[in-house]
Amino acid sequence: MNVLEVRNLSVQYPGAQGAPDIVNNISFTVEKGSITGLVGESGSGKSTAMLAVMGLLGARASVRHDGITVSGSAPVPGKNVAMIFQDSLSCLNPSVKIGRQVRETVRARTGCTRKEAAARAVQLLEMVGIRNPALRMRQYPFELSGGMRQRVVLAIALACEPELIIADEPTTALDAVVQAQILQLLRRIVRETGTALLLVSHDMGVTAAMCRDVYVMRAGEIIESGTAEDIFYHPCEAYTKQLLKDAKGGRLRVGEAKSGDEGPAGEEALLRLEHVTKIFDEREGIRDISLEIRRGEILALVGESGSGKTTAARILTGMLREDAGELYHNGQVLKRGRRMDSFQGTVQMVFQDPYASLNPCLTVRRALLEALDGSERLRGLSGQEKEERIREILTLTGLPQEAADRYPRAFSGGQRQRIGIARALVTEPDVLVCDEAISSLDATTREQILELIFRIQRKIGFACLFISHDMYVVRRISDRIAVMYGGHIVETGKTKQVCKDPWHPYTRLLLSAVPEPDPIRASRMKSGPARESAGNPGACTDARCPFADRCGYALECCGKEAPGQYRFGDREVSCFLYSEEHSGRRGSTYRMTSQI
Asked: Which of 261, 470, 489, 564 is 20 to 30 A from 572 via CA?
């Protein structure tokens, strides 16, 4: 039985007469109690189609169709259909406590009393795996992690008692472990409640792990459909084949260059943190971390949301001042005051959201000129030299020369990220910090940006700190990897060795939670409990191991003291399983291997 039936849906925005429809005559169905996927790259029309189904486009667009029904009647948001969006923070009212937001939805749907609504709100929060719901109901959205906020949004959707939930990129901004937990939660809710789920995503791994049926969308049209096995194992359309190739990485120079165990291009440390601590609100932040970025290498910094990755990056770039510890640049200790000036433009950053990090009022040329003017080393360049440098960097980043006179709004997400990279590289930095620079991009655009970063890095030779929660991407682009959890670095080593044979229990969990673009393999994805973690991944403490509450290998000492850093050749791990004091003495010829 079909819960959702869409027949010949087309969408065109006012003022676009004569232009192609954003959504062009698409038809699809979703069966009761099933999970159906709608996939395609950014700009293919997926989200526009879903907003049209929900009736949320209003006067912004001209919507035409031969019928859109949910269980035989028109879709009514909040009644028979609910929607979960990508950015959970923007979906929640920042000035209203979580409990009130869930209660109001329950009362609007059922007309029950406040007491009954409060009890139902607790049940819903428990259903979506939130521990201590009474506490969470008294908190504001900004006090919750990204995974917890997405659980709250799901609870509000379930409060509507819908027959269909539309989830539009619900896990794109989440790390692998939390993503796997949310996907497991969605799967359980569909199974237990019988609610149908329409999953909209550009992530082929997520689609393979979740969906029974799949529709492939391109340029506003559905070009192919079938079971997940049909689409992933026997695709017919060239576009579908390319999506799968990009999701699996294809055969890029990135992957080839990282296939060996050779070390980075140079062993000299350009930037080095030594025993750095930065604490927010007594517990959040990083504690006693040591990290170095070597000349000519790509170092990946990975870990779940709240683990301290961005805090470490902001200290490295001089945006934050550490509470304790030292920062070295080219072997020279850097004083905490006016540290960014001492870098003289040699450390640059590419941010996650390219549109938010670009001034919408500046053309590309003006943004690049501002970067050049802000570099103390390059302020002596003449106007002609600056123009020549702008032309060179646009060519290097794959942007047309005419892009210099356009504003950010005129570009796609992938093109805007190229502009962000061009702005960072125009000053010829020694170190480039990429903070989740590709997490919001579809597979095809992601491959293009990865190839671009790798190609330019090998040509210019800058060191790169690549921050990501995407282990699949990290595995392909980096020379070395540092894994963070709870404000501590728990494992470092050469990328191939760490990914092939993880030593720390959290590293293994992180790697096992990555869904592959293969329905059979993705179904084996591991995530641990679907509930919110009992511990706080952002809690910094010297009193115990931060991973002790989630570790299946925890020793008695793990809850009483924090492990040290134990080094074995190129590998360093923070786990008592590798300590002679707690795991026994080893002979002089003993060669350390994974203890998990």
From this structure: 470
